[in-house]
């Protein structure tokens, strides 16, 4: 299990070197007028994209995810428990997937986003303190 500092370091590394699919999706989200953040620490996980106004986490799944179905399910359940919707997009679909569901999701009060992020990060602290 990664410490807070290890998560932050890994987040910086991932943000500095996005995958080709992440770069493509970021461009498409920008073009669609979607406000998003990349590589956001949510609890013990780093989300590829977070759309705060939509309470949405978007994960771009590459080949490595084929062997990690249990981990991805655990991650998705954690994010949903914290109040986020989760959208998974395969690498090969980043350039062509339908983004209209993202654009048309109703906006939420940003207080809900901050509360969900705080709840997720509080859970991280509780888990790490149990070591």
- Number of beta-strand segments: 4
| Envelope shape | globular
* Poorly predicted ranges: none
SSE topology string: HHEEEHEHH
Approximate helicity band:
40-55%
Query: Which strand-content bin applies to the residues?
Result: 15-25%
Largest sheet: number of strands, sense, barrel closure? 4 strands, mixed
Cα distance spanning the termini? 9 Å
Radius of gyration: 14 Å
* Spatial strand sequence of the major β-sheet: 1-2-3-4
Structural class: alpha+beta
Mean pLDDT: 88
Helical run tally: 5
Quickly list its features:
131 residues, 19% strand, globular
Q: What is the topological layout?
A:
Elements: H1 4-16, H2 20-31, E1 37-42, E2 45-51, E3 56-61, H3 69-81, E4 85-90, H4 100-104, H5 110-129
Note down, in words, how this protein is organized.
This protein is of the alpha+beta class and 131 residues long. 48% of the residues lie in helices and 19% in strands. It has helices at 4-16, 20-31, 69-81, 100-104, 110-129; strands at residues 37-42, 45-51, 56-61, 85-90. Strands 1-2-3-4 form a four-stranded mixed sheet, sandwiched between helices. Strand 1 (37-42) and strand 2 form a beta hairpin. The model has no long low-confidence stretch (mean pLDDT 88).
């Amino acid at each position: 299990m990664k410490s807070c500092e290890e998560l932050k370091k890994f987040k910086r590394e991932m943000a500095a070197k996005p995958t080709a699919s992440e770069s493509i999706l970021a461009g498409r989200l920008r073009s669609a007028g979607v406000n998003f953040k990349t590589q956001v620490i949510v609890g013990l996980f780093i989300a590829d994209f977070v759309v705060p106004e939509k309470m949405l986490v978007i994960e771009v799944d590459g080949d490595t995810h084929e062997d990690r179905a249990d981990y991805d399910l655990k991650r998705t359940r954690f994010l949903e428990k914290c109040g986020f919707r989760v959208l998974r997009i395969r690498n090969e679909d980043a350039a062509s997937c339908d983004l209209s569901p993202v654009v048309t999701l109703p906006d939420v009060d940003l207080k809900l986003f901050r509360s969900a992020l705080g709840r997720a990060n509080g859970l991280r602290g509780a888990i790490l303190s149990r070591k």
